[in-house]
Please model this.
Amino acid sequence: MAVAEHEAGPDLEAHRMTFGEHLEELRQRLIYSLVGVMLAVGICLFWQQELMWAVTWPHRMAQESLGHPPQLEVFDYADRFMIPMKVALIFGLALAAPVILWQLWKFIAAGLHPNERKYALICGPASLLLFFAGATFGYVVLIPVTLKFLGSFAADWNIFKESIALDKYLDMFFALTIAAGAVFEIPLIMTFLAFVGMVPPKTFASWRKVEVMIAAILGAILTPGGDLVSMASLAIPIVVLYEVGILAGRLVYREPAEAAA
Model:
């Protein structure tokens, strides 16, 4: 055994990267990620008119259902240039996310054990898919519901002149989209905690009342409108996703050996 350890020692040392090599590897991965982002942003700039049409679709649908004009206002010349650039940058980052995650994976994989690599290869793509699923939910459900409610509130008062700024709308759009994407990570986080044995599924189940209260608080914080409808449209999915996390946790959880004995 001692001989085997002695023979394995030099190999391990030979494969161990120095601090300078780690920095060089990090620099290389950052360059690849930056190139990926630049290419993705360039593609989005080429399609910026179509992206602006897609981003403003929930607003147009909400306004048309309320019988209001769908135009959004800009208040200076620079907005005509800066706002499409901002949209292209955000969509470019989203488009380049797989490249960024892959470069991050290549950087950290060298320091992981084989079983840790396997779990990371499962969790990484799953996390990305869940985020985009949540962003899609925000785009299709959460944002239109929120806009319709806010647009119809006090519509018969005749004391408001409706003038919606494009930059304000985009702030709400991206805030709700990112919030919905982050919320959809809940089942994955719960499943991971159950899998590694940190939090048993029965513990999650016992926290249901607290989770409902937290869901209401998160709905109030993460939805810019602050109205009950938009809060509920985010809080209810949080409750459903929490239940999904409990079910998934039960599938992967294993009782510790001491408790089983």
Summary: Residues 2-184 form one domain.
